[in-house]
Structure formats: C-alpha cells, structure tokens
Specification:
By secondary structure, the chain is an all-alpha fold. The protein has 10 helices and no strands. It has one domain. Helix 2 runs antiparallel to helix 6, helix 2 packs parallel to helix 10 and helix 3 runs antiparallel to helix 5. The longest helix is centred in the last third of the chain and has 44 residues.
Length: 306
C-alpha cells in the first residue's frame, strides 16, 4: 500500500531539491563561457523548476483554508513575474543592436575588397551600432537599479520557521540568487550589486546545505565577475563577442586591410549566436509566465473545491 510523505519529509525533499539545483549550476558554470546564453538558459530552467516544485509541494501539505499561505505564494510569484518581465524587456531590446549589426555584416558580403564608399558606409553603420549599445547600457542600468533594490528588500527574514514558510523562505533565498545572475547577465551588472559586495547572507537560508550551495554558486559567479568584467554593463557573452568582432572589423577597415572576409564571418557568426540566444531566453520566459498563471489557477481551484 502506498504511503504519502509526511509534511516535514515533503519540505525536506523540496529543500534538498533546491540545493541540488544550485550545486548543478555551480558545476555547469565551469563548462560554459562566462555568462553565456547557454548557461543563463540553465539558470532560468532552474528558476522555473523551483516554482514548479513549490506549487506541487503546496498540494502535498494540505494547508488550511483562510490562512496567509496563499497570499504569500501570490506575492512571491508576483516578485518572480516582475523580475522576469524586466529581464524579457532587456533581452527584447537586444534586437535594436543585433538587427543593425546583421546589416553591417551583410554590407560586406561581396568577396572583393570593399571600396572607399562602402568602407565609409560600413564605418557609419558600426558607429550607429555602438551608439545603440551605449543607449541599451544606459536604459538597462536605470531599470536594473530599481529592480535589484526590490529583489533584496522583499527578501524577508524567517528564523525558526517550518513547513510552508520554511519552504517559501528557502525558495525566495535561492531564487533571488538566480534572478541576480540573470539580471547581471542580461540586464546590467555594476559595482553596487551583491556580486561586488561579497557573500550573500547564507544565515538567512533555511538549511546549512542550501546555504552552502547558494554561497558556493555566488562565490563562483562573483569571482568570475571580478576577473572578466570589472566595468559595469551587460555581461552576456554573445553580446560582448559581437561587440568585440565589430571593433575588430572596424580596425581592419580603418587600416585599409585588403582582406576583411574573416572578420566579417566572425561578426556574422557572433551576431547569429546573439540573436539565437536572445530568442531562446525570450521563449523560455514566455513559458515561465504561462506556468505562473497556471500555478495560480491550480491553487485557487484547489482552495475553492475543498
């Protein structure tokens, strides 16, 4: 005869799952380019799995009707929604860069060396792309400064909590770290973020295992930020690669190089990778929004049919 898990065992299993997911991201970070779209895809997948598991946990706990747990769940999913909406807005805006960057590469499709008129046209297009990138950085910083403060001020303390509130607090602690990684990679990263301020407050975590997993991932990302990206800005690997390829192409043209085909191909592949990565992130965010809506409906229906 099957036997359902006790509430405490269900919560313990949820906390263990959070810790395992953070450990997995810690290992994946080493096998991907710094802040690549592929790694951030894994981060977003983990965030979605946190929400999915929390929703399933609420079914298992048989919480009393009329308690505050549903409001607290709604508040947490609203926080996730708002942060991910910011991320989607920033990623969608990358089209303002990769679209004209594609045009730069297409201008040099002719295998013959570019003439003076074409070189002037390409340099002008590259300058336009750089202005667009500067504008993206400026706008993203304004958005990120507000959202980072919201992420951290809403992470309330929870000492000696148990059951649902222990699970919710652990979820909030772990998801805040993942959102910070996503915001830093896709929106903006600057010295005021916690990656520059030191370790997160692992004492706020519900379990020592989860606290250790979160601290390890945070330390690994913070160390990489310090090594690779001391200047503030959007850390997305594909964006930095495209910008670097464009700078190299411009240098070749300004040096009157006879052959720029290799630099053009480098720019083309970098821009295609940026576009593909951005589209993948947006698609996954849209799926997450659908999951949040469905999770809310499921819990509301569960409460209304008891």
């Amino acid at each position: 005869m099957s036997q359902s898990r006790s509430p405490s065992a269900s919560v313990a299993g949820f906390l263990s799952f959070l810790s395992e997911q953070l450990d997995n991201l810690d290992h994946l970070f080493l096998s991907h380019d710094f802040m690549s779209a592929a790694f951030l895809h894994h981060v977003l997948s983990a965030l979605r799995s946190f929400h999915s598991r929390l929703t399933s946990l609420l079914h298992q706990l048989h919480l009393p009707l009329g308690d505050k747990w549903l409001d607290e769940y709604m508040d947490e999913t609203s926080r996730l929604w708002d942060a991910c909406h910011l991320i989607k807005s920033a990623v969608s805006a990358l089209e303002n860069y990769h679209s004209p960057a594609s045009t730069v590469a297409s201008l040099l499709r002719d295998p013959h060396p570019p003439n003076h008129h074409l070189c002037t046209q390409v340099i002008r297009a590259i300058s336009g792309c750089k202005r667009e990138l500067t504008a993206l950085h400026h706008e993203n910083r304004s958005m990120a400064e507000i959202k980072i403060q919201t992420l951290f001020t809403s992470e309330a303390r929870c000492k000696r909590c148990s059951g649902f509130r222990e699970a919710l607090h652990a979820m909030r602690h772990a998801s805040t770290l993942l959102l910070l990684i996503l915001v830093s990679g896709l929106v903006y990263c600057w010295p005021e973020t916690s990656f520059y301020r030191g370790e997160p407050d692992s004492s706020s975590s519900s379990t020592s295992a989860l606290g250790a997993s979160a601290a390890s991932l945070h330390e690994r990302v913070a160390s990489a930020v310090g090594r690779h990206h001391r200047e503030p800005g959007i850390m997305l690997y594909e964006l930095r690669s495209a910008a670097f390829a464009m700078d190299e192409l411009r240098a070749e043209i300004e040096a009157d190089a006879a052959e720029v085909g290799e630099k053009v191909e480098s720019l083309k592949s970098s821009v295609e990778a940026l576009q593909c990565g951005a589209e993948g992130i947006i698609g996954q965010l849209d799926d997450f929004f659908d999951e949040i809506v469905e999770g809310r409906k499921t819990l509301l229906n569960m409460c209304s049919h008891r």
